[in-house]
């Protein structure tokens, strides 16, 4: 059999076990066109069948379409059966493993979640489906609240509209954190065995449980408790605009705000309800240019003092504050700026907690996030942990009291949710902002106070999107083979290659470049998108607030120019 004939046979076999009419018809159209000699259709089949969407520590994520290199009901069914096999294999003798399953408002999320629940139950795993579409943090919370073995969240977070994904959490000693190696490899092996040996239509299915509303109520109560100030004292009311970015955040956020005693914000009406088409944004990620334009317009019309935004599955938080120098009237805080402020808040709360011997606990952030948090930890005598990228690592820092990533992810209540949570982060931020206003200050002034106390920390990021993933490997290899001796006119002091691990850090495809002036550059492939990412950080503790900010910004600008020349070529 020729390679093309084998490809067509594989595609026909896929159709035979695909329960989805839409993807069956789509794939049949490609088969018919390829059989008639259409080279584009044949290339499309090769793209879908020559490789398989890999299951890893980030679970699964990809475009919804037919074939093993896409997200679809066949692939999800294989993943569910493989995860079930892993849970049964690792369960304590005589016990029945259990799983809680959640889903957001994306295309096919509810279908993928129901398939997972039925197949888990059919395999002998106790399966509990959350009662409706809900934010991702609800699953991380429910794993601990229900004391189950694992959790599955069907979401692609802030990816393009036609993407979906599959995140896996573990209970028990993992406290509801996302999976890490070697668990991901063990689950992947089971998934591949199912794919090789089983027709998903023949896999047993059974009835599952549906969680009571009490799970949601418990999350709401626990998250409302993040606020440190009582509603009747220590707060001044703010005019706030909120957007859910066409996602699932609003209903739960509204309930938490009410429970915490905050006035409800003004919603961005066009973006407040779940809509898998994400019609008002080019890319449903509050980090992307233009994504918060409607929120800014709404805030400007109302004269709002604060904008808060969740991404579509509400595990991230973006914030914008009034700015006289920005043409729109508002400036979005970077993830590093907001992480520094929330980390400072956590440190102060730890310092104010009753007890002898001073504050205890750990502030943690990923290695690509700003060093500002380490300065806060040192100032308060707290422990500090630098982890690999991803909350699967941040959430596992011993003694954690706060963790963040520069990509708008914040973990403010580790005793409740061991993952980034845009809703609890919003409560912490509102708690801070309303107390500052009551004291005659603001978030903008608080940022200046941070610089005066800890120094100025400037950051920048370069994202190189590629169509050919081999390009990323080529750039990484070139940097390793011929490392730079200077970047943007600043001498390189040291390069740490994390490929074999470094100190306590597990192996990762990351280069960490230290400059003579103390600046830092990190280079790594994205874990969820076809991008090479470069993170640049510089700081200054010399002079006034203005002088510190100018010096840090100048170093970052020079490094960005130098790195673009290295990675954009």
From TrEMBL:
<keyword id="KW-0413">Isomerase</keyword>
<dbReference type="InterPro" id="IPR016055">
    <property type="entry name" value="A-D-PHexomutase_a/b/a-I/II/III"/>
</dbReference>
<keyword id="KW-0479">Metal-binding</keyword>
<dbReference type="InterPro" id="IPR005846">
    <property type="entry name" value="A-D-PHexomutase_a/b/a-III"/>
</dbReference>
<comment type="similarity">
    <text>Belongs to the phosphohexose mutase family.</text>
</comment>
<feature type="domain" description="Alpha-D-phosphohexomutase alpha/beta/alpha">
    <location>
        <begin position="218"/>
        <end position="320"/>
    </location>
</feature>
<dbReference type="InterPro" id="IPR016066">
    <property type="entry name" value="A-D-PHexomutase_CS"/>
</dbReference>
<feature type="domain" description="Alpha-D-phosphohexomutase alpha/beta/alpha">
    <location>
        <begin position="53"/>
        <end position="193"/>
    </location>
</feature>
<dbReference type="Pfam" id="PF02879">
    <property type="entry name" value="PGM_PMM_II"/>
</dbReference>
<dbReference type="InterPro" id="IPR005841">
    <property type="entry name" value="Alpha-D-phosphohexomutase_SF"/>
</dbReference>
<dbReference type="InterPro" id="IPR005844">
    <property type="entry name" value="A-D-PHexomutase_a/b/a-I"/>
</dbReference>
<keyword id="KW-0460">Magnesium</keyword>
<dbReference type="InterPro" id="IPR036900">
    <property type="entry name" value="A-D-PHexomutase_C_sf"/>
</dbReference>
<dbReference type="InterPro" id="IPR005843">
    <property type="entry name" value="A-D-PHexomutase_C"/>
</dbReference>
<feature type="domain" description="Alpha-D-phosphohexomutase alpha/beta/alpha">
    <location>
        <begin position="335"/>
        <end position="448"/>
    </location>
</feature>
<dbReference type="Pfam" id="PF02880">
    <property type="entry name" value="PGM_PMM_III"/>
</dbReference>
<feature type="domain" description="Alpha-D-phosphohexomutase C-terminal">
    <location>
        <begin position="464"/>
        <end position="542"/>
    </location>
</feature>
<dbReference type="Pfam" id="PF02878">
    <property type="entry name" value="PGM_PMM_I"/>
</dbReference>
<protein>
    <submittedName>
        <fullName>Phosphomannomutase</fullName>
    </submittedName>
</protein>
<dbReference type="InterPro" id="IPR005845">
    <property type="entry name" value="A-D-PHexomutase_a/b/a-II"/>
</dbReference>
<keyword id="KW-0597">Phosphoprotein</keyword>
<dbReference type="Pfam" id="PF00408">
    <property type="entry name" value="PGM_PMM_IV"/>
</dbReference>
């Amino acid at each position: 059999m020729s390679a093309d004939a084998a490809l067509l046979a594989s595609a026909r076999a896929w159709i035979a076990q695909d329960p989805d009419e839409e993807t069956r018809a789509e794939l049949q159209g490609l088969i018919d066109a390829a059989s008639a000699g259409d080279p584009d259709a044949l290339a499309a089949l090769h793209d879908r069948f020559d490789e398989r969407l890999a299951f890893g520590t980030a679970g699964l994520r990809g475009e919804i379409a037919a074939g093993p290199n896409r997200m679809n009901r066949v692939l999800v069914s294989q993943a569910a059966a493989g995860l079930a096999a892993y849970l049964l294999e690792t369960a304590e003798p005589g016990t029945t493993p259990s799983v809680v399953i959640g889903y957001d408002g994306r295309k096919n999320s509810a279908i993928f979640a129901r398939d997972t629940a039925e197949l888990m139950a059919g395999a002998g795993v106790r399966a509990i489906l959350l009662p409706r579409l809900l934010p991702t943090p609800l699953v991380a919370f429910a794993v601990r609240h229900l004391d189950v073995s694992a959790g599955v969240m069907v979401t692609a977070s802030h990816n393009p509209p036609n993407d979906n994904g599959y995140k896996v959490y573990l209970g028990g000693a993992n406290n509801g954190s996302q999976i890490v190696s070697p668990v991901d490899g063990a689950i992947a092996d089971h998934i591949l065995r199912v794919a090789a040996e089983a027709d998903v239509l023949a896999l047993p299915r059974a009835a599952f449980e549906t969680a009571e509303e009490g799970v949601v109520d418990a999350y709401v109560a626990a998250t409302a408790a993040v606020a440190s100030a009582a509603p009747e004292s220590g707060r001044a009311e703010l005019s706030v605009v909120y957007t859910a970015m066409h996602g699932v955040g609003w209903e739960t956020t509204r309930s938490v705000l009410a429970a915490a005693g905050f006035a409800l914000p003004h919603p961005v009406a066009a973006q407040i309800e779940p809509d898998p088409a994400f019609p008002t944004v080019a890319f449903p990620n509050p980090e992307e240019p233009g994504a918060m334009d409607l929120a800014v317009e709404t805030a400007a019309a109302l004269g709002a003092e604060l904008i808060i935004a969740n991404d579509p599955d509400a595990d991230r938080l973006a914030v914008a504050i009034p700015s006289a120098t920005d043409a729109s009237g508002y400036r979005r805080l970077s993830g590093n700026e907001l992480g520094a402020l929330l980390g400072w808040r956590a440190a102060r709360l730890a310092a104010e907690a009753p007890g002898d011997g001073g504050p205890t606990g750990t502030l943690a952030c990923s290695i690509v996030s700003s060093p500002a948090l380490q300065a806060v930890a040192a100032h308060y005598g707290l422990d500090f942990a630098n982890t690999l990228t991803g909350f699967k690592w941040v959430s596992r820092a011993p003694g954690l009291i706060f963790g963040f990533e520069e990509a708008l992810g914040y973990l403010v209540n580790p005793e409740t949710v061991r993952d980034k949570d845009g809703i609890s982060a919003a409560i912490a931020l509102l708690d801070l902002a309303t107390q500052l206003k009551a004291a005659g200050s603001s978030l903008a002034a608080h940022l200046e106070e941070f610089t005066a106390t800890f120094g100025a920390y400037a950051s920048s990021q370069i994202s190189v999107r590629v169509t050919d993933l081999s390009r990323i490997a080529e750039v990484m290899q070139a940097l390793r083979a011929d490392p730079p001796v200077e970047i943007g006119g600043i001498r390189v002091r040291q390069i740490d290659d994390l490929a074999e691990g470094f100190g306590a850090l597990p192996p990762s495809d990351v280069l960490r470049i230290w400059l003579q002036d103390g600046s830092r550059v990190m280079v790594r492939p994205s874990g969820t998108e076809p991008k090479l990412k470069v993170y640049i950080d510089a700081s200054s503790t010399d002079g006034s607030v203005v002088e510190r900010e100018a010096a840090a910004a100048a170093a970052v600008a020079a490094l960005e120019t130098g790195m673009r020349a290295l990675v954009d070529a």
